[in-house]
Amino acid sequence: MARSSPDPNYERRVRDSFARQRFMGTIGARIVSVAPGEVVIELPWRDELAQQHGVLHAGAVASIADSACGYAALSLMPSGSGVMSVEFKVNLLAPGRGERFLASGRVRRAGRTLTICEGTVRAVTGSEEREVAIMTATMIRLEGRPDLAD
Amino acid sequence: MARSSPDPNYERRVRDSFARQRFMGTIGARIVSVAPGEVVIELPWRDELAQQHGVLHAGAVASIADSACGYAALSLMPSGSGVMSVEFKVNLLAPGRGERFLASGRVRRAGRTLTICEGTVRAVTGSEEREVAIMTATMIRLEGRPDLAD
Amino acid sequence: MARSSPDPNYERRVRDSFARQRFMGTIGARIVSVAPGEVVIELPWRDELAQQHGVLHAGAVASIADSACGYAALSLMPSGSGVMSVEFKVNLLAPGRGERFLASGRVRRAGRTLTICEGTVRAVTGSEEREVAIMTATMIRLEGRPDLAD
Amino acid sequence: MARSSPDPNYERRVRDSFARQRFMGTIGARIVSVAPGEVVIELPWRDELAQQHGVLHAGAVASIADSACGYAALSLMPSGSGVMSVEFKVNLLAPGRGERFLASGRVRRAGRTLTICEGTVRAVTGSEEREVAIMTATMIRLEGRPDLAD
Questions:
Q1: CA Rg, chain A, in Å?
Q2: CB contact under 8 A, A87 and C138
Q3: Do C138 and A140 count as a contact with CB atoms less than 8 A apart?
Q4: CB distance D92–C87 less than 8 Å?
Q5: Subunits touching B (CB < 8 Å, at least 3 pairs)?
Q6: What is the DSSP letter of B146?
Q7: N or C: which end of chain D has fewer CB within 10 A?
Q8: Rounded to whole angstroms, what are the CA distances from D142 to C120, D19, D74, D113?
Q9: What is the pLDDT of residue B109?
Q10: Do C114 and A140 touch (CB under 8 A)?
Q11: Who among C113, C136, C138 is closest to A138 (CB)?
Q12: What tens-digit pLDDT sequence spans chain B (150 residues)?
């Protein structure tokens, strides 16, 4: 299911947008990879990210999955597009314990206006991985609104 | 629809748990109020919370709504309970622009094991308010697991 | 929060569309009321609607809530619009036991393209009511596509 | 990822429960296959299932996906268990046009109490298939409640 983007500069566009986004940096997340319709974000564990039981806060889980999904959607949009989240749902499958977390966002259906994405978050410790959460998300393409455009 | 908690110390319990939770402090959020089945959390705007278009990142929106819902659920649980998110869904209604954000979590149905909550996030600028997001969430009560207990 | 519709004939438009929709009739549902941004649908209990434990199938719960939300959205759209579901989520709060079920759909935010709605389903037995489910839904307006237009 | 069920009679148990469930029969759905953690349900097109634009009603889409997910969950539960839907979310990817529809439900994580499932609905016309919807669902195991037990 290899996809292609209408914009040959999709990777640069995604990485530039990510760099402008302060929140991912605030929590310590970075982009691992950008392919057409699929983006991976990594979040190393820090105590500052814990909820009351010492595991990754569900909000942090959702945050990296949302960004991975949003950038996966953006990677398939034409140049000049912006992207915003319309809605997302997260199911938490296991407590978020690990040295680092990998959020993958993949486009399931790319429409003209709306793009539907799936995300997963895995906890990684050494060579072990465990799925922590799954997301489905709807993203909307913004065009012709310079203030919000990418 | 005034509710009562089975635990007269529900407010202390919620505030103590919030204090142990690092992530809310990391993003700058604090508890505004705790009532039985309803908790309000405030997040002042900071540039560090922005997504690529300069508004509050949807992950930050979800994070404060999730915490407000989780603590609303905890406020109605018996002493010794812990709470974890099973799932939540967020619909973003408007871009998150404001001086501060108020997330309210309310219990819609409290069961023995599962509690269903509704959350809203409002953006506040001066005396103006605008609804930014709504959430529905399922929370699970943890008991008899000292490592995870409240 | 009384609303007004851009189309004075909103009620006729909603009722005509409902009459064209076969599925609601198939399960025995009918429209109870149409107001701008709020539609109520009633489903009398029939054994044919049961799941394996003898209560209303969650799919039937979702079906009437989805239709109520979709028509609530349509009631606020200009004449000539069609409406389709983008996504919805249902939380089941209690087993669906009752003589009849009332699904209310209300518009929470009406946008140019997307409308976000909330739905509830209540079970009614005599003078007693119990909330059975809540829904949040995203609806999309269709225009200029005669095959799908209302 | 072949799974095994704790109950060697899982298929009989699922098929018996499906036979007791009236709603699937009411809309014309039948079980196609039962494997441990995966169930497929087929719904042939009938005009009675249409929404106002002549395609499969989103509620019918959700109904078969919910049943497929619920029975996928039940197939991995011990004998004597019942299953109920806690919540589900559906994203509609394309209008439901086809000769028949296939809903697949797969267990993503089976817990002691809660099981998280993923569902897909595909429209089939001749040899062509198109994905119509995706679902994530939380199912709960019921035990020791003879009135609701399987």
A1: 15
A2: yes
A3: no
A4: yes
A5: A, C, D
A6: T
A7: N
A8: 24, 19, 10, 8
A9: 97
A10: yes
A11: C138
A12: 578 999 999 999 999 999 999 999 999 999 999 999 999 999 999 999 999 999 999 999 999 999 999 999 999 999 999 999 999 999 999 999 999 999 999 999 999 999 999 999 999 999 999 999 999 999 999 986 544 433
DSSP string, chain A: -----S-TTHHHHHHHHHHH-HHHHHHT-EEEEEETTEEEEEEE--GGGB-TTSSB-HHHHHHHHHHHHHHHHHHTSPTT-EEEEEEEEEEE-S---SSEEEEEEEEEEE-SSEEEEEEEEEEEETTEEEEEEEEEEEEEEE-S-TTT--
pLDDT digits (tens, 9 = 90+) for A105-146: 999 999 999 999 999 999 999 999 999 999 999 999 998 654
CA distance D26 to chain A (A): 30
Question: Do A139 and A70 form a contact (C-beta atoms < 8 A)?
Answer: yes
In a domain, C104, yes or no: yes
* B140: Cβ contacts below 8 Å, ≥ 6 apart: B83, B84, B85, B86, B113, B114, B115, D114
Contact: A63, B63; criterion CB under 8 Å = yes
Q: What is the pLDDT of residue A144?
A: 61
Backbone angles phi, psi at B121, to 5 degrees: -125, 125
In a domain, D148, yes or no: no
> Subunits that touch chain A (at least 3 Cβ pairs < 8 angstroms)?
B, C, D
Tens-digit pLDDT profile for residues C72-110: 999 999 999 999 999 999 999 999 999 999 999 999 999
Edge-to-edge strand list for the sheet holding A114-125: A30-35, A38-44, A100-110, A114-125, A128-142, A82-92, B82-92, B128-142, B114-125, B100-110, B38-44, B30-35
CATH number at residue A115: 3.10.129.10
User: What residues of A are in contact with residue D89 (Cβ under 8 Å)?
Assistant: 89, 136
Q: How many domains does chain B have?
A: 1
Cα–Cα distance for residue pair D143/D150, rounded to 1 Å: 9
Q: Give dist(CA D75, CA D37) in Å, integer.
A: 6
- In this predicted model, what pLDDT tens digit does every residue of D132-143 receive, in sequence order? 999 999 999 998
Query: Is residue A109 a part of any domain in this protein?
Result: yes
The answer as to whether D71 is a domain residue is yes
> Do residue B116 and residue C91 have CB atoms under 8 angstroms apart?
yes
Query: Contact A107/A73 with Cβ under 8 angstroms?
Result: yes
Tokens of C37: 């941004």
| Nearest Cα residue in chain C from D138 | C91
Q: Rounded to whole angstroms, how far apart are CA atoms C61 and C68?
A: 11
Structure tokens at C6: 């851009």
If interface means Cβ-Cβ distance under 8 Å, which residues of chain C face chain D?
17-18, 20-27, 47-53, 57-60, 62-64, 66-67, 70, 82, 84-92, 95, 147-148, 150
Q: How far apart are CA D105 and CA D128, in angstroms?
A: 20
* Domain of residue B80, residue span: 10-142
Nearest CA in chain A to D94: A109
